[in-house]
Amino acid sequence: MKTPLDSATVILTKESNQGPFKVFLMRRHRNQDFMGGAFVFPGGKLDEGDCDPDLALYTNGFTGADALRRLQAPELAEEKALGLFFAALRETFEECGVLLAYQAPGKLIDLGEGERAGRFAGYRLQIHDHSLSLKDLAEKERLSFALDLLTPYAHWVTPDIESKRFSTRFFLARQPPEQIPFHDTIEMTKSQWLSPAEALERQRAGKLLLMPPTLKTLEELNEFHSLEDLFEAARSRRIHTILPEAFMTEDGFGVRLPHDPQYTTEAYKQPPRPGETSRILMHDGLWRTERG
Q1: The CATH number, out of the four listed (3.90.79.10, 3.40.50.2000, 3.90.1570.10, 3.90.280.10), of the domain defined by the range 5-238
Q2: Can you state the angle between helices 64-71 and 78-96, rounded to 10 degrees?
Q3: Integer angstrom CA distances of residue 234 from 13, 44, 81, 237, 239
Q4: Sorting pLDDT into bands at 50, 70 and 90, what band is 36?
Q5: For the chain, percent helix, then strand, then coil, each to nearest 5?
């Protein structure tokens, strides 16, 4: 069984005049061997540099103990817990150009101004190709990173039937003022803001490809009527690791989630949730959620 790689992904949100809120989704290149063509949240694997202990000097007081407590993962070392927050922050900057950082106490960095916007666009490419580190960026621009604005939401682990496996921490974040996300054009081919309801409707119509974790997450987000409600619930939410359990169907295959009545992996099993979907099945090339 292949050991999952640690990774992080960020559900970037913003207020909307057409509904409760929207989330930022990007489409991966179709030629990528993992989730090619799917719409995803910004994210990627944990890099060694994300766990650099010197980065703790640029967190505005946010500590490894804070990271560990928020992730609800006592089995992790504090260094890795803090590294997962940095991975989320770094990947969001690399993939969509949004940087959660303070340029002064309590003041998020403004990337709307021309010269600074151009300078940070260059930093974004350098971070991506590893010629610049987050520590270098903090020192160059006298920044502190806003890890406190990342709210842990979920923890998904890829089933062991997959050749590439990830242990992914999902975080919520709000779009910072004066920053406009845009996909990187290196790993992504398209990006858009959609309400959870719009994304789910397009998935059902075959116009948007969503993989099981993204699909189920959007289904959950669609239950909230405002960002305030969502973030309040997330802060008090108990995070249980979700390891989907693969099974065969008459038409193909699917996965059971830990709260499905027929889920069998005891270490991850959760109590049933009547009325909530607990299975994700492949139908005609698209994933669909169903009740168990």
Answers
A1: 3.90.79.10
A2: 80
A3: 13, 21, 18, 5, 9
A4: low
A5: 30, 25, 40
